Fold this protein.
Amino acid sequence: MKVTLVAVGKTDTGAISELSDEYQKRLSRYCNFTLRIAKTLTKSKNLSEKEILDYEAKEIIKHLSPKAFVIALDDKGQVKSSVDFAKFIAQKRDSGISEWCFLIGGAYGFSSHLEPFIQAKLSLSKMTFTHQMVRPIFLEQLYRAFTILNNEPYHHE
């Protein structure tokens, strides 16, 4: 299974990067995982929110594979438990999907220009997290899903 995470903007906090790196290493046991960073712009350049979103969309699209099942991590997406997320992955995997691309948007979310590419939307929580914090949280949940699917003792109910 090939899994790509496309995240907008670099992480400027060492602890977040270290935690993300740790889960990326763990994920390598289960899949061919790649993290891609899409460039962003800042509002300090006197750009509107729409201009920033449109720029980020173009940068995200550069990283999309036409074969991948694209899932946006979006606060308007479906909320799933860890077990349900694992079942979702298993169901899609068993239907023949072998390449996945998860998207983490920037501070303003996603441009409507990405809608034709997105096949599902998932929310990590009803709470709001910074787009930088979403990285390690999502990576941990992805790792957890793989351990659930492999009946490993990491997850406890």
Remarks:
- The chain has four helices and five strands.
- The chain has a mean pLDDT of 93.
